[in-house]
Amino acid sequence: MIKYSFIVPVKKINEYIRESIPKILKINRDDYEIIIFPDESSSETWTKTKQVATGPGGPAMKRSLAIKEAQGEVLIFIDDDAYPNIDFLKKLDAEFADQEIVAVGGPAITPKHNSFQQKVSGAVFLSPLSGGCPERYVPIGEKRFVDDWPSVNLSVRKNVFEMVGGFDSNYWPGEDTLFCLELIKKTGKKILYLPEALVYHHRREGFWRHMKQVGAYGLHRGHFARKFPKTSRRFKYFLPSLFLVYIVVGLIVSLQIEWLLWPYIAGLFIYVLALIKAFFDIRKHEKRSVAFVALPYIFGTHIAYGSNFIKGLFKKQIKISLR
Q1: Of 140, 143, 85, which is closest to residue 112 (Cα–Cα)?
Q2: How far is CA 52 from CA 86, 100, 172, 238, in A?
Q3: How far apart are CA 124 and CA 213, in angstroms?
Q4: What is the pLDDT of residues 206-256, one digit of tens each?
Q5: Cα–chain center distance at 157
Q6: Could you tell me if 21 and 46 are in contact, meaning their C-beta atoms sit under 8 angstroms apart?
Protein backbone atom coordinates (compact mmCIF):
# COMPACT_ATOMS: atom_id res chain seq x y z
CA MET A 1 0.00 0.00 0.00
CA ILE A 2 1.32 3.44 -0.95
CA LYS A 3 1.64 6.01 1.83
CA TYR A 4 0.93 9.66 1.04
CA SER A 5 1.99 12.96 2.61
CA PHE A 6 -0.11 16.09 2.08
CA ILE A 7 2.26 19.08 2.08
CA VAL A 8 0.62 22.41 2.96
CA PRO A 9 2.70 25.64 3.10
CA VAL A 10 1.18 28.65 4.86
CA LYS A 11 2.31 31.82 6.63
CA LYS A 12 0.16 31.13 9.67
CA ILE A 13 -2.76 28.91 10.64
CA ASN A 14 -5.77 30.62 9.08
CA GLU A 15 -9.44 30.04 8.29
CA TYR A 16 -8.56 28.25 5.07
CA ILE A 17 -6.46 25.72 7.00
CA ARG A 18 -9.27 25.28 9.52
CA GLU A 19 -11.54 24.37 6.62
CA SER A 20 -9.16 22.33 4.46
CA ILE A 21 -7.61 20.01 7.07
CA PRO A 22 -10.98 18.60 8.27
CA LYS A 23 -11.96 18.09 4.62
CA ILE A 24 -8.77 16.14 3.94
CA LEU A 25 -9.48 14.07 7.05
CA LYS A 26 -12.83 13.01 5.58
CA ILE A 27 -10.76 10.64 3.44
CA ASN A 28 -11.32 7.56 5.58
CA ARG A 29 -7.96 5.82 5.22
CA ASP A 30 -4.90 5.25 7.36
CA ASP A 31 -2.24 5.53 4.65
CA TYR A 32 -1.63 9.29 4.71
CA GLU A 33 -0.32 12.11 6.85
CA ILE A 34 -0.75 15.88 6.68
CA ILE A 35 2.17 18.25 7.26
CA ILE A 36 1.52 21.98 7.63
CA PHE A 37 4.48 24.34 7.29
CA PRO A 38 3.63 27.70 8.98
CA ASP A 39 6.14 30.38 9.91
CA GLU A 40 5.28 29.65 13.55
CA SER A 41 3.28 26.68 14.81
CA SER A 42 0.06 27.13 16.75
CA SER A 43 -1.54 25.14 19.55
CA GLU A 44 -4.28 23.79 17.26
CA THR A 45 -4.17 20.08 16.52
CA TRP A 46 -5.80 17.63 14.11
CA THR A 47 -5.44 13.87 13.78
CA LYS A 48 -2.84 12.56 11.27
CA THR A 49 -1.48 16.11 11.17
CA LYS A 50 1.64 17.84 12.39
CA GLN A 51 2.88 21.41 12.16
CA VAL A 52 6.51 22.16 11.35
CA ALA A 53 7.51 25.75 12.06
CA THR A 54 9.80 27.13 9.34
CA GLY A 55 10.32 30.78 10.17
CA PRO A 56 9.61 33.37 7.43
CA GLY A 57 9.89 31.99 3.92
CA GLY A 58 8.10 31.40 0.65
CA PRO A 59 5.97 28.40 -0.36
CA ALA A 60 8.80 26.88 -2.42
CA MET A 61 11.14 26.74 0.59
CA LYS A 62 8.41 25.30 2.81
CA ARG A 63 7.40 22.62 0.31
CA SER A 64 11.00 21.51 -0.12
CA LEU A 65 11.20 20.70 3.60
CA ALA A 66 9.06 17.67 2.75
CA ILE A 67 12.31 15.94 1.77
CA LYS A 68 13.25 15.90 5.45
CA GLU A 69 9.89 15.78 7.21
CA ALA A 70 7.56 13.60 5.12
CA GLN A 71 7.18 9.86 5.64
CA GLY A 72 5.05 9.20 2.57
CA GLU A 73 6.22 7.60 -0.65
CA VAL A 74 4.20 10.16 -2.59
CA LEU A 75 4.12 13.87 -1.73
CA ILE A 76 0.85 15.67 -2.45
CA PHE A 77 1.46 19.39 -2.87
CA ILE A 78 -1.63 21.46 -2.20
CA ASP A 79 -2.27 25.08 -1.19
CA ASP A 80 -3.63 26.13 2.20
CA ASP A 81 -6.83 27.38 0.46
CA ALA A 82 -7.43 24.08 -1.34
CA TYR A 83 -8.67 20.61 -0.41
CA PRO A 84 -9.10 17.29 -2.29
CA ASN A 85 -12.19 15.47 -3.41
CA ILE A 86 -13.17 12.56 -1.18
CA ASP A 87 -11.94 9.96 -3.75
CA PHE A 88 -8.66 11.77 -4.44
CA LEU A 89 -6.31 9.12 -3.04
CA LYS A 90 -8.23 6.34 -4.73
CA LYS A 91 -7.61 8.04 -8.08
CA LEU A 92 -3.90 8.37 -7.30
CA ASP A 93 -3.64 4.72 -6.19
CA ALA A 94 -4.42 3.46 -9.66
CA GLU A 95 -1.74 5.62 -11.29
CA PHE A 96 1.10 5.33 -8.80
CA ALA A 97 0.72 1.55 -8.83
CA ASP A 98 2.61 1.90 -12.11
CA GLN A 99 6.25 2.55 -11.18
CA GLU A 100 6.75 4.40 -14.46
CA ILE A 101 4.49 7.21 -13.22
CA VAL A 102 6.58 9.75 -11.31
CA ALA A 103 4.13 12.65 -10.95
CA VAL A 104 0.41 13.33 -11.32
CA GLY A 105 -1.42 16.64 -11.68
CA GLY A 106 -5.14 17.33 -11.63
CA PRO A 107 -7.57 20.23 -11.93
CA ALA A 108 -8.18 22.78 -9.18
CA ILE A 109 -11.84 23.72 -9.47
CA THR A 110 -13.77 26.52 -7.78
CA PRO A 111 -15.82 25.33 -4.76
CA LYS A 112 -19.57 25.68 -5.09
CA HIS A 113 -19.79 27.66 -1.85
CA ASN A 114 -17.38 30.39 -3.03
CA SER A 115 -18.81 33.90 -3.32
CA PHE A 116 -20.07 35.31 -6.59
CA GLN A 117 -16.88 37.35 -7.07
CA GLN A 118 -14.69 34.34 -6.38
CA LYS A 119 -16.65 32.32 -8.94
CA VAL A 120 -16.13 35.11 -11.46
CA SER A 121 -12.38 35.06 -10.81
CA GLY A 122 -12.29 31.30 -11.32
CA ALA A 123 -14.52 31.50 -14.41
CA VAL A 124 -11.93 33.64 -16.20
CA PHE A 125 -9.72 30.58 -16.57
CA LEU A 126 -12.43 28.33 -17.97
CA SER A 127 -11.95 29.64 -21.51
CA PRO A 128 -8.83 29.14 -23.67
CA LEU A 129 -9.07 32.86 -24.48
CA SER A 130 -7.81 33.81 -21.03
CA GLY A 131 -4.88 31.49 -20.64
CA GLY A 132 -4.95 28.47 -22.89
CA CYS A 133 -5.03 25.91 -20.02
CA PRO A 134 -8.66 25.44 -18.88
CA GLU A 135 -7.87 21.81 -18.00
CA ARG A 136 -6.05 23.18 -14.96
CA TYR A 137 -9.33 24.58 -13.62
CA VAL A 138 -11.95 22.07 -14.72
CA PRO A 139 -11.72 18.36 -15.69
CA ILE A 140 -11.43 18.31 -19.48
CA GLY A 141 -10.48 15.50 -21.84
CA GLU A 142 -8.61 12.28 -21.21
CA LYS A 143 -5.55 11.68 -19.08
CA ARG A 144 -2.32 12.48 -20.89
CA PHE A 145 1.26 13.55 -20.22
CA VAL A 146 2.12 17.25 -19.80
CA ASP A 147 5.37 19.12 -19.15
CA ASP A 148 4.19 21.84 -16.75
CA TRP A 149 1.70 21.73 -13.88
CA PRO A 150 0.90 24.05 -10.93
CA SER A 151 1.67 22.97 -7.38
CA VAL A 152 -1.88 23.53 -6.10
CA ASN A 153 -2.57 19.94 -7.20
CA LEU A 154 0.67 18.14 -7.92
CA SER A 155 1.65 14.73 -6.53
CA VAL A 156 5.24 13.51 -6.87
CA ARG A 157 7.10 10.41 -5.74
CA LYS A 158 9.28 11.46 -2.81
CA ASN A 159 12.43 9.83 -4.17
CA VAL A 160 11.98 11.73 -7.44
CA PHE A 161 11.32 14.99 -5.61
CA GLU A 162 14.52 14.48 -3.62
CA MET A 163 16.49 13.61 -6.76
CA VAL A 164 15.33 16.79 -8.47
CA GLY A 165 16.27 18.79 -5.37
CA GLY A 166 12.85 20.15 -4.46
CA PHE A 167 11.53 23.54 -5.55
CA ASP A 168 13.74 26.50 -6.39
CA SER A 169 13.08 28.87 -3.49
CA ASN A 170 14.29 31.86 -5.53
CA TYR A 171 10.90 31.94 -7.25
CA TRP A 172 7.24 32.20 -6.32
CA PRO A 173 5.12 31.97 -8.35
CA GLY A 174 6.90 29.96 -11.02
CA GLU A 175 8.75 27.50 -8.78
CA ASP A 176 6.49 24.71 -10.02
CA THR A 177 7.35 25.43 -13.67
CA LEU A 178 11.06 25.17 -12.87
CA PHE A 179 10.51 22.00 -10.87
CA CYS A 180 8.68 20.37 -13.78
CA LEU A 181 11.52 21.35 -16.12
CA GLU A 182 14.07 19.73 -13.82
CA LEU A 183 11.89 16.66 -13.33
CA ILE A 184 11.71 16.08 -17.07
CA LYS A 185 15.45 16.71 -17.49
CA LYS A 186 16.53 14.35 -14.70
CA THR A 187 14.00 11.54 -15.13
CA GLY A 188 13.18 11.69 -18.83
CA LYS A 189 9.51 11.45 -17.83
CA LYS A 190 6.57 13.87 -17.78
CA ILE A 191 3.66 14.63 -15.45
CA LEU A 192 0.47 12.64 -15.92
CA TYR A 193 -2.59 14.89 -16.20
CA LEU A 194 -5.44 13.06 -14.45
CA PRO A 195 -8.76 14.92 -14.81
CA GLU A 196 -10.40 12.78 -12.11
CA ALA A 197 -7.86 13.82 -9.44
CA LEU A 198 -9.83 16.85 -8.24
CA VAL A 199 -9.05 19.46 -5.65
CA TYR A 200 -11.19 22.48 -4.81
CA HIS A 201 -9.36 25.80 -4.77
CA HIS A 202 -10.70 29.07 -3.40
CA ARG A 203 -10.35 32.00 -5.83
CA ARG A 204 -9.32 35.61 -5.34
CA GLU A 205 -12.26 37.79 -4.33
CA GLY A 206 -12.58 41.10 -6.16
CA PHE A 207 -11.35 42.57 -9.42
CA TRP A 208 -8.11 44.09 -8.15
CA ARG A 209 -6.99 41.03 -6.19
CA HIS A 210 -7.55 38.96 -9.31
CA MET A 211 -5.50 41.39 -11.41
CA LYS A 212 -2.68 41.36 -8.87
CA GLN A 213 -2.57 37.57 -9.08
CA VAL A 214 -2.55 37.33 -12.87
CA GLY A 215 -0.07 40.21 -13.05
CA ALA A 216 2.35 38.18 -10.90
CA TYR A 217 1.83 35.19 -13.21
CA GLY A 218 2.58 37.36 -16.23
CA LEU A 219 5.74 38.85 -14.69
CA HIS A 220 7.22 35.44 -13.92
CA ARG A 221 6.17 33.86 -17.20
CA GLY A 222 7.75 36.74 -19.13
CA HIS A 223 10.98 36.35 -17.14
CA PHE A 224 10.92 32.59 -17.69
CA ALA A 225 10.29 33.05 -21.44
CA ARG A 226 13.71 34.70 -21.58
CA LYS A 227 15.55 32.64 -18.98
CA PHE A 228 13.87 29.21 -19.17
CA PRO A 229 12.45 29.08 -22.71
CA LYS A 230 11.77 25.34 -23.04
CA THR A 231 8.22 25.47 -21.63
CA SER A 232 7.66 29.23 -21.28
CA ARG A 233 8.61 30.59 -24.71
CA ARG A 234 5.35 29.50 -26.25
CA PHE A 235 3.22 31.64 -28.52
CA LYS A 236 0.13 31.47 -26.31
CA TYR A 237 1.99 33.19 -23.46
CA PHE A 238 2.88 36.12 -25.75
CA LEU A 239 -0.69 36.67 -26.96
CA PRO A 240 -1.87 39.03 -24.14
CA SER A 241 1.20 41.23 -24.68
CA LEU A 242 0.63 41.28 -28.44
CA PHE A 243 -3.00 42.24 -27.82
CA LEU A 244 -1.93 45.07 -25.51
CA VAL A 245 0.54 46.36 -28.10
CA TYR A 246 -2.20 46.14 -30.74
CA ILE A 247 -4.58 48.24 -28.63
CA VAL A 248 -2.07 50.98 -27.81
CA VAL A 249 0.04 51.18 -30.98
CA GLY A 250 -2.92 50.46 -33.23
CA LEU A 251 -4.91 53.33 -31.75
CA ILE A 252 -2.03 55.79 -32.09
CA VAL A 253 -1.24 54.76 -35.67
CA SER A 254 -4.87 54.62 -36.81
CA LEU A 255 -5.47 58.15 -35.53
CA GLN A 256 -2.49 59.35 -37.55
CA ILE A 257 -3.25 57.33 -40.70
CA GLU A 258 -6.96 57.57 -41.38
CA TRP A 259 -7.33 54.54 -43.66
CA LEU A 260 -6.02 52.25 -40.88
CA LEU A 261 -8.85 53.17 -38.50
CA TRP A 262 -11.36 50.68 -39.94
CA PRO A 263 -8.93 47.73 -39.96
CA TYR A 264 -8.13 48.62 -36.33
CA ILE A 265 -11.84 48.62 -35.43
CA ALA A 266 -12.26 45.33 -37.30
CA GLY A 267 -9.55 43.80 -35.11
CA LEU A 268 -11.36 44.95 -31.97
CA PHE A 269 -14.59 43.48 -33.35
CA ILE A 270 -12.85 40.11 -33.76
CA TYR A 271 -11.77 40.35 -30.11
CA VAL A 272 -15.40 41.00 -29.10
CA LEU A 273 -16.41 37.86 -31.01
CA ALA A 274 -13.74 35.92 -29.11
CA LEU A 275 -15.20 37.23 -25.84
CA ILE A 276 -18.64 36.00 -26.91
CA LYS A 277 -17.10 32.58 -27.57
CA ALA A 278 -15.51 32.74 -24.10
CA PHE A 279 -18.94 33.48 -22.61
CA PHE A 280 -20.28 30.21 -24.01
CA ASP A 281 -17.16 28.31 -22.87
CA ILE A 282 -17.78 29.51 -19.31
CA ARG A 283 -21.53 28.80 -19.50
CA LYS A 284 -20.72 25.09 -19.77
CA HIS A 285 -19.59 25.24 -16.13
CA GLU A 286 -21.05 28.38 -14.52
CA LYS A 287 -24.25 30.41 -14.38
CA ARG A 288 -25.05 33.06 -16.99
CA SER A 289 -24.47 35.92 -14.54
CA VAL A 290 -21.00 34.61 -13.61
CA ALA A 291 -20.06 34.16 -17.27
CA PHE A 292 -21.25 37.67 -18.15
CA VAL A 293 -19.31 39.40 -15.36
CA ALA A 294 -16.23 37.32 -16.21
CA LEU A 295 -15.92 39.06 -19.61
CA PRO A 296 -14.49 42.37 -18.30
CA TYR A 297 -12.28 40.28 -16.01
CA ILE A 298 -10.90 38.51 -19.09
CA PHE A 299 -10.14 41.84 -20.75
CA GLY A 300 -8.45 43.06 -17.57
CA THR A 301 -6.54 39.78 -17.32
CA HIS A 302 -5.11 40.32 -20.81
CA ILE A 303 -3.98 43.83 -19.90
CA ALA A 304 -2.51 42.92 -16.47
CA TYR A 305 -0.84 39.74 -17.67
CA GLY A 306 0.33 41.24 -20.96
CA SER A 307 1.92 44.35 -19.44
CA ASN A 308 3.68 42.37 -16.72
CA PHE A 309 4.84 39.74 -19.20
CA ILE A 310 6.65 42.49 -21.11
CA LYS A 311 8.23 43.72 -17.87
CA GLY A 312 9.34 40.19 -17.06
CA LEU A 313 10.97 39.78 -20.48
CA PHE A 314 13.33 42.63 -19.71
CA LYS A 315 13.99 41.96 -16.02
CA LYS A 316 17.32 40.34 -15.28
CA GLN A 317 16.09 39.28 -11.87
CA ILE A 318 12.76 39.19 -10.08
CA LYS A 319 12.17 39.16 -6.36
CA ILE A 320 10.32 36.31 -4.72
CA SER A 321 6.74 37.24 -3.87
CA LEU A 322 5.85 36.29 -0.29
CA ARG A 323 2.23 35.93 0.76
Answers
A1: 85
A2: 25, 31, 20, 40
A3: 12
A4: 999 999 999 999 998 999 898 888 888 889 999 999 999 999 999 999 989
A5: 20
A6: yes
